[in-house]
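lol ok so funny story. i was supposed to be doing the assay writeup but got distracted and ended up predicting the structure for this chain instead. priorities right. anyway since i did it might as well share w the group, maybe its usefull for someone
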Amino acid sequence: YPKGLQTLSSKLLKSLLICLPLLGAGCGFTPMYGEDREAAGQLQLIKIATIPDRRGQVLRNHLLDLLTPKGPPKRSAYTLETTLDIHTRDIGIRRDETANRKQVTVKATVALKDSTTFKTLHERTITTFNSYTLTAHDYFATEVGEEAAIHEALRLTAQKIKLDISAFLLHAHP
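and the output, tada:
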């Protein structure tokens, strides 16, 4: 390229790189999974109620990590109440009609309530599926696989709850 064209091309490229982020800012784009400061501030005001049983404690701990990573709020604006239901069912059947794979279904019904009026602001049932393999000769491996599948389903459920509550708070309080 001639020197003048190369300089012009270089200047045009630099200008384009500077203007490109500005064009994206004007279109109203907001990342769906990125950290939103407004949502994070609202989530920090949620008190997470105790969930019964050991698996409920695991889900609650995941929710605490996701919703209130700085610790529980001193003065909560919302209370999150959760009921948990976990079921397993056979999904893989061998020729001798015994199961070789199971599916875990975690259903969490969440209710976001106003901490002062106790009015339910938002209620939803979140469902998560996971599966594990049954081993014919190793009972311990099956038990470990089941627990790992349930724990992963609980972790994913907590993430879904965070997304759902974040979306509600952002649309309810724009």
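The CA atoms of residues 105 and 142 lie 17 Å apart. Residues 139-172 form the longest helix (34 residues).
back to the writeup now i swear
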